[in-house]
Amino acid sequence: MSTPFAAWAEQVQADMEVVLDRHLPPASALPTKLHQAMRYAVLGGGKRVRPLLVFAAGTLFDAPRDALERSAAAVEMIHAYSLVHDDMPCMDDDDLRRGKPTVHRQFDEATALLVGDALQSQAFLVLSQGALAPDRKVAMLSQLAHAAGSLGMCGGQAVDLDAVGIALALPELEQMHRLKTGALLRVSVLLGAYAGKALQADEQAALDSYADAIGLAFQVVDDILDATADSATLGKTAGKDAAHNKPTYVSILGLQPSLALAEKLRQDAHHALQPFGEAAIRLRELADLIVQRKA
Ligand code: GRG
Asked: Does domain 5-292 correspond to CATH entry 1.20.1050.10?
């Protein structure tokens, strides 16, 4: 694999802009305001970490390109919907996302609610289509539904909303993040793999360990960045956790131990990938990116 990681990632990010554009309804389709707002929420921003994970895992399991594109578009649409809803006044009440006004600020609250709803439906529609065998697609749809729902991302968000001002212990904090952020990162890895050849039980276990480590690492780093970076760098409001009295890795462990934990999780992720050897290079590089990112 000779392409440097940065060039590979930039290519996937650029490709995803085209793929997402193709899999979203056109802005000219009725109702135009809703479709414009859906495209505003999804296109032209974000690090595309989840699509990168889909493509990295898919490469390892020889997945066909169209199935990877659909999987990556589906998880990114679910992710974008979660950000739109999370930013609304009834949740985090934020004005800035991906360096631009949040959807309810740019449009209105009712539109933001519908954008999230419609993006979630669109994600499952896109994943349900394409040339993969029907039983494979059902397995993937089921995994995505589980990851996004009340036993995954939505459940984690519910726990998070209830935790404001409450002194969570570390295991509870971890469980909340495993659901809220980890579930979607994990399913990104799984969808990439499922789009390729059938997984052996030990391969599934190795991917699960990897996904668990990067899911937690992502959140530890998110907490570190919220405490240390500025809003312009992050493209979203910095310092919100402390302002909202939210329990975080930094508030519970302190900054230096949080940095050490992120590094340990990066090493755990690398270790989990050992059975795949050199072929898992992109997944290893993504673990590095997640821990070393500055935004
Ligand atoms: C509203 C159902 C519902 C769920 C919301 C993911 C989430 C659950 C809320 C987002 C709030 C938040 C800041 C979570 C911390 C981790 C996270 C998901 C950050 C944003 O993801 P990035 O950094 O964003 O991958 P980009 O913009 O790069 O795609």
From this structure: no
